[in-house]
Amino acid sequence: MTTTTKQTLSHLDWLESEAIHIMREVAGQCSNPVLLFSGGKDSICMLRIAEKAFRPGKFPFPLMHIDTGHNYKEVTDFRDKRAAELGERLIVRSVEESMKRGTVVLKSPDESRNKHQSVTLLEAIEEFGFDACLGGARRDEEKARAKERIFSFRDEFGQWDPKNQRPELWDLYNARSFKGENIRVFPISNWTEFDVWQYIEREKLELPSIYYAHTRPIVVRNGGLQPVTDVTPARPDEKIEEMLVRFRTVGDITCTAPVLSDADTIEKIIAETATTTITERGATRLDDQTSEASMEQRKKEGYF
Question: pTM higher than 0.70 for the full model?
Fold first, then answer.
């Protein structure tokens, strides 16, 4: 007589399994997908899921980053290092290239380039003929993201219409598209920031150093913490202070603010995340706090 042991899956096992299933659906249904990889924590989790979905073979898609030209060097260096370690193709397209072509025109030299990534992304999709873009966006990040399906349909202009999306009953996904149309796919859409950090801990994933507490020169600007850099110098009336901070999310230097923190280990970050009452974008993404640059409007214009 034999006995069987029932294995209990953790919530991370269920989330990971769902994400693997979604990635394999993209590989099976789409002819030319791409995985967006910035070097940030969410896309690092996406790489691990891709490894579990497709290794020991090569990924059935290249990696791509839309670089504003004003990203933190710690993050872009990590991006290049991680892609090289995996032996996967990394495509980098820059907003600066779009500026040279005249397809992106800044209102002023110090305008944030972050929202202009939409133009460069759409140009890259057309250049390579990608029919699906896999990304690490999550519904808990921002209210506009919460409206989006896992398989998010974009029309021939790259635009998102929240009222014109496909049903996803019983986890059945429809990636059908005509030439020029595109599907944006979010395998970790149902994850939370807390899930991401727990997964990073479980999988022992390496991260760019700026996710951990460190000291850097900061000024307080418009109620937020602005790192002092060559791109964002201090103004004459601002006082520069050395502060102990970390980044909850990373992006363009001009609109990504750190938070005060002494969390210098994964365990401390998880404990800190468990008690926070402010979303990561609400606390750290200055570009989400103006109506002109609202996430929903940018997504309608082609933003990821």
Answer: yes
